[in-house]
Structures are given as structure tokens and as C-alpha cells.
Design a protein that fits this description.
The structure is a single chain. By secondary structure, the protein is an alpha/beta fold. The protein has one domain (13-191): Isochorismatase-like (Rossmann fold), CATH 3.40.50.850. 40% of the residues lie in helices and 17% in strands. The protein has a 6-stranded parallel beta sheet. Helix 1 (34-50) runs antiparallel to helix 7 and helix 4 (111-124) runs parallel beside helix 5 (141-154). The longest helix has 17 residues, at 34-50. Belongs to the isochorismatase family. InterPro entries: Isochorismatase-like_dom (IPR000868), Isochorismatase-like_sf (IPR036380), Isochorismatase_domain (IPR050993). Residues 16-162 form the Isochorismatase-like domain.
Length: 205
């Protein structure tokens, strides 16, 4: 009997959703590479809007941790407040209403907390999770690295923003490609990933 074919992790606009997790004011000075993470997440948001990929936004205890930072560009999105260290309970109704959903693209903070737990909850629902590694961080770079390794062990895909963007658009003949090309013309800002992976790459094998 042939072995089951492993999931390839293909991403298509019609079966994907973008999750933006807890990029709030009180985290601004505590999260490593916070400006870079938000910049990349904003890029993902713009692409999602161009390709009509739905977007969901959460805020962790906004009364104490403040609103989503304005540079993320989420005007027009209604943030869902939560206290759980996972986005899934707050977005349960949204997930249930999308039977065609296959892939979740995940950006935000913190990697070892809400990103990890959201990933596990989504995997448990049978969804593919694509962690946008250059749009996720933590206060501690050790926590960030080990969380990425842990998510990969559990079956999530680790992807860069540009890799996912090009998968979503699919073809240079796409009517939105020229607009998207403008967004990715400059490489994503450095968020310390190269040094992180080089220093501890055995965790990611």
C-alpha cells in the first residue's frame, strides 16, 4: 500500500485567511524587532486586501495592553478582544462559517504564546497553518526560536512573507501582480532571523 502523500502546503487566495495577532501599543518597546514585524505584517495585509483574502484581527486584553498600532494599517477592520492565549476561541464563529477554508497565514506576537497556541488549535481543526516567520516575534529570541521549532514539529509550515505572497498571486499575469510587485520590490526588513537560524539550526531539522 502506497504511503500517504505529505501535505505540500499550497496556498490559494480562495481557501486562505490572514490572522493578525495582538500587535498592540504596550508591546511596542518590549518585543524584539517590533517595527520590522509590524512592517511585514502590514505588507501581508495589503496583499490580502488586493487578492480579497479575508483578514481577522485580535487584541489581547486591550483595556490594559492598548489598541493595535496604527502603522499596521488595519483601519476598517474590527479587532476582536480576547484574553485567551489563542486566537481561535474568539474567531470560532468566523472559522465555522468558512467551510472552504484550508490555510491560515499567521502573523503577530508572541511566538511562544498566542502564535503557538493558535497554531496548535488550528492544526487540531485540520487546517494548514503557515507561520509568517518574518512577521512573528517575542520578547526573548530563545522563546521565538524554540516556538518556531515547536510549531514546525507539530505540522505547521514556516514561510517568509515574500514566499507566501508569491504563492498567493501565483502568476505574473495576475491582474494585481504589478501592485503586489511594488510591495515586495524592497526585501522585507531584517528581523534577526538569519542569525537566529544559523546559531541554533539543529532545532529546525
Amino acid at each position: 500500500m502506497a504511503a500517504a502523500r505529505p501535505s505540500l502546503g499550497r496556498v490559494l487566495p480562495g481557501s486562505s485567511i490572514l490572522f493578525l495577532c495582538d500587535m498592540q501599543e504596550k508591546f511596542r518597546h518590549n518585543i524584539a524587532y517590533f517595527p520590522q514585524i509590524v512592517s511585514v505584517a502590514a505588507r501581508m495585509l495589503k496583499v490580502a486586501q488586493l487578492l480579497e483574502v479575508p483578514v481577522m484581527l485580535t487584541e489581547q486584553y486591550p483595556q490594559g495592553l492598548g489598541p493595535t498600532v496604527p502603522e499596521l494599517g488595519t483601519e476598517g477592520l474590527r479587532p476582536l478582544a480576547k484574553t485567551c492565549f489563542s486566537m481561535v476561541p474568539a474567531l470560532q464563529q468566523e472559522l465555522d462559517s468558512r467551510p472552504q477554508l484550508r490555510s491560515v497565514l499567521l502573523c503577530g506576537i508572541e511566538a511562544q504564546a498566542c502564535i503557538l497556541n493558535t497554531t496548535l488549535d488550528l492544526l487540531d481543526r485540520g487546517l494548514q497553518v503557515h507561520v509568517v516567520v518574518d512577521a512573528c516575534s517575542s520578547r526573548s529570541q530563545v522563546d521565538r526560536l524554540v516556538a518556531l521549532a515547536r510549531m514546525r514539529q507539530s505540522g505547521a509550515f514556516l514561510s517568509t512573507s515574500e514566499g507566501l505572497i508569491l504563492q498567493l498571486v501565483g502568476d505574473a499575469a495576475h491582474p494585481q501582480f504589478k501592485e503586489i510587485q511594488k510591495l515586495i520590490k524592497e526585501p522585507a526588513p531584517d528581523s534577526g532571523l538569519l542569525g537566529l537560524f544559523q546559531g541554533q539550526n539543529s532545532l529546525l531539522h
